[in-house]
Amino acid sequence: MIRTIRRALLGALPEQVAKILRCIGAPNKFIHFPGATYNSDGLVTRHNADFLRDKLFVESYALARATGMTANDNPAWRHSVVYWAAYKASTLEGDFVECGVNRGSMSRGLIHYVDFGSLPKTLWLLDTFQGLAATHINDEERRLGRVPGGYTECLDAVRETFAPFKNVRVIPGTVPETLSQVTAQKVAYLAIDMNCVAPEIAAAEFFWDKLVSGAVIVLDDYGFELHEPQKRAFDEFAARRGCRVLSLPTGQGLIFKP
Ligand SMILES: C[S@@+](CC[C@H](N)C(=O)[O-])C[C@H]1O[C@@H](n2cnc3c(N)ncnc32)[C@H](O)[C@@H]1O
Predict the structure, then answer these.
(1) Both 74 and 19 in a single domain?
(2) Domain that holds residue 29
């Protein structure tokens, strides 16, 4: 089967390859792309991927994976974007916030990458720690496959992962209801990864005025297949503020606060 697919892909243009892979439901990782430096998580490239061998990245990503993250694939490039954003934000005034934490892989990785424990900042982690809320999923998202729950309960595991860090606050419950518990007046880094529009836009609205100039919002699902409602909502959100979302080949989107 794999040999047949490989033969079919020989000589195909990149967009034809992507289409064939989608049609057969095969992840890229089963296909050999000659010269690929990275082939995972829906992204194949021959571009430089030296970060994969960077000592600090390797250590950080190992800690991220040790949280038991539930990603189907190996999202190393997405982590490198998150760590870069965190590094930039570490040079600004303001706290870090992640809405949509699950087992805390990205936050655990970035803590090591920027030595967050030594910074005069708080990292606020907001999640139900038991998946999506039924009331937040709209009809279009339901048709696209979003379901209530969808993640195993992980609050105790997250508390244990972040217990060594005195400047991390874990806030269980549904966004937007829990947003008021974040008492930060200034925010330098905002990661949003809740898989549906309503809580994500509510979080972005809540924090927009608190984001300092140069602060970065990392949207994890922005360009992902079957997540178009989130992309549309954030394109509109950014446009209303005179900004544009930077679409990354990892599927992430970045917004910089002017
Ligand atoms: C894709 S996971 C987040 C992955 C995480 N960023 C990481 O580093 O691995 C999505 C998370 O969003 C959470 N979530 C979805 N809707 C939520 C809501 N309204 N309030 C709080 N958390 C929510 C889910 O419980 C789930 O843990």
Answers:
(1) no
(2) 2-45
Ligand 1 within 6 A of CB of 127: yes
Q: Give the distance (Å) from ligand 1 centre to CA of residue 115.
A: 24
Give the pLDDT confidence of 64-77 residue by residue, as tens digits.
999 998 666 789 99
On whether both 152 and 244 belong to a single domain, the answer is yes
* pLDDT (mean) for 75-99: 98
Kindly report the CATH number assigned to the domain that includes residue 188: 3.40.50.150
Contacts of 32 (CB under 8 A, 6+ apart): 6
Q: What would the pLDDT profile of 229-256 be if each residue is shown by its tens digit? A: 999 999 999 999 999 999 999 999 999 9
pLDDT at position 74 is 87
For ligand 1, say whether the CB of 174 is within 6 Å of any of its atoms.
Answer: yes
Encoding tokens for residue 6? 């490989």
Residues 138 and 167 occupy one common structural domain? yes
Ligand 1 neighbourhood includes 154 CB (under 6 angstroms): no
